Structure formats: structure tokens, C-alpha cells
Amino acid sequence: MAFHEYIRAVGTGPKSNRELKKEEMIDAMESILNQNVHSEQIAAFLLGWRVRLETIEELKITFNVCDKYIKRKTVENSIELGYPFDGKADNPYILPLVSKHLKKFDLNLVISGDELQPAKKGLTLKELNANIKLDNNIHYFDRADYFKELSDLTKIRNILGLRTAFNTVEKLLNPGNSKYAINAAFHKPYVVKYNELFGKNYEHLVIIKGNEGTPEIFSKCKYWLNNDGDISEHLIDPEYFGINYKKSTTIISKEESLNMTRNPSDELEKLAKLNAAMFLIAAKKTKDIKKAYEMIN
């Protein structure tokens, strides 16, 4: 089918918009990833699709198409962390402070990075990896190496300047064949969506309402566990553990962000232990955050 028919399916308004069939979705995604159509057509489809709202079935098909392109390298006993590709803008990365607490549990962390994607203009994991020496139990995967086709869409996505369905799908593509994963969700409806989209690929998937859309805890927040299809909601409050870190709500410079990670305050170090405790839950070391925190300490 001509690609403009796919644009018509997502971009002609409520009366004419429709869900793409499986074969159409596969063809559309392969055309986009291989850039077999004009960049203007790719941008038009991604924008129309976003406005029309992607269905979970379309996202599943997109994920399955992406899966065929990925070059994987297994990292044993690892947790994949679903960071967004638009970076962190208001607060530093706590990840480099967390990893050291997981070494005694023989746990590895898998993260993925690329050039900055829309829509936030934060410090990316690619920049973090280039500027801070990460512990040897953090395994950084550059998307230009393991999924070049999606990485090559960066220019088009930045010209468009808006979030697209790729922002949802790209967070947990599992280049390290990880058994466990933690993903972040801004809104509760995404908890079910993420479990449907990613859950089957992991022995255990934890969803957390993390800081700036990352799997990092900086303040009181909720997290969700999936036990054989039964999703339970839990609350975690740093103050309960005697942690009084005050997160920023305004943009900080990239250099300031890096310096805060390089020279962490005592409260940020304490917060790192709480994050490490959450990672123990993801790795099925325990189901209780209080016990997990005791294990870290």
C-alpha cells in the first residue's frame, strides 16, 4: 500500500481515522525505520498517529518490528532501566551512585543511550557515560550500535520536535537480554500499557512514577508490581527512611548536573541507597521495600 494511505489513516480527523491493520502497521514501521519514504511523510505519520492516539495493538506491532532489528549482547543477572532519551533537566542522575550498592548482590544494570531526542532538553545518558566513569556493573549500550535504524531517525524526530510513539516503545528494547526491568510512568494508565507492551520480555517488571520520567526515586512516589497479571500499587516515601533530599523543580545546567553526581551530598547518597533497594525488588530479592533497604544498609 502507498504510504500516504497510512498517513490518511491517522491524520484525516475523527470521522476517517482508523486503527491500522497488522500488515499495514508492519509495512509502515519498516518503511519508517528503513527510511524508504520521504522524511516529510515520516514526520506527518508520526505526528498524526500521536494526535489520533496510538492503540496498544499498534504499539505491540511496532515493538515487534523494532525487535527484529536489535543486535543483542547478553548481560547476565541484569536489570534493564527504562530511561527516556530526552534526558534529565531538573535533577542529576543518581544511577552512578546506586550501582556500587548492588555489587554485593552480583547485579548488573543495563542502560541505553543516544543523541538527544524530543521533547525535553536534558542531560542524556550518552553524555553521562561520556563524562562520568561508570562502575563496571553498569553496561551502557549505544543505540547507534545496537539499533542504528532508530538512531538514524534522530534528525527527523528533532525537526518534528514533539514526542512520538517511539518515546514509548524505545525505553525497554532489551539489548542486554535482561531478566528484570524497571520502567517509569507519568500516568497510571501507562502502567497497564507498559505491562502489556514489555511485561512478557522479563521475569519481573517494576513500574515506578520516577523523577522526570526516569526509574529514579527523588521524592514520595508510587510504584506498581505485576504478580501473574495482578497489578498492585505501593507507596514509597524517602522521609520514612530519614531521607530529606529536596529535589529541584527548575532547570539546571548540564555541568551542574554532572557535578552533583560527581560530588554527591549526604542526602543524595542516602537517596541512592533507597533507589538500590527498589532495584532489589525488581530483581526479586524481596517484595518489601523496608526489608530491601535494610539489605542495602
Could you explain the architecture of this structure?
A 7-stranded mixed beta sheet has the order 3-2-1-4-5-6-7, sandwiched between helices. The chain contains 14 helices and 7 strands. It has 2 domains: 65 residues, Transferase, Pyrimidine Nucleoside Phosphorylase, Chain C (Transferase, Pyrimidine Nucleoside Phosphorylase, Chain A, domain 3); 198 residues, Pyrimidine Nucleoside Phosphorylase, Chain A, domain 2, CATH 3.40.1030.10. 41% of the residues lie in helices and 13% in strands. The protein is globular, with a radius of gyration of 19 Å. By secondary structure, it is α/β, with parallel strands linked by helices. α11 links the parallel β4 and β5.
Major sheet summary line: 7 strands, mixed
Unreliable runs, pLDDT <50, ≥5 residues? none
- Fraction of residues in H or I helices: 40-55%
* Radius of gyration based on Cα positions: 19 Å
CATH H-level name of the largest domain... which superfamily?
Nucleoside phosphorylase/phosphoribosyltransferase catalytic domain
What fraction strand?
Answer: 5-15%
Shape: globular
Q: Give me the secondary-structure category.
A: alpha/beta
First CA to last CA: what distance?
59 Å
What is the β-strand count?
7
Mean of pLDDT: 96
User: Number of DSSP helices?
Assistant: 14
CATH class category of the largest domain = Alpha Beta
The spatial strand order of the largest sheet comes to: 3-2-1-4-5-6-7
CATH topology of the largest domain: Pyrimidine Nucleoside Phosphorylase, Chain A, domain 2
Order of helices and strands: HHHHEHEHEHHHHEHEEEHHH
CATH structural architecture of the largest domain: 3-Layer(aba) Sandwich
**How many structural domains does the protein architecture include?**
2
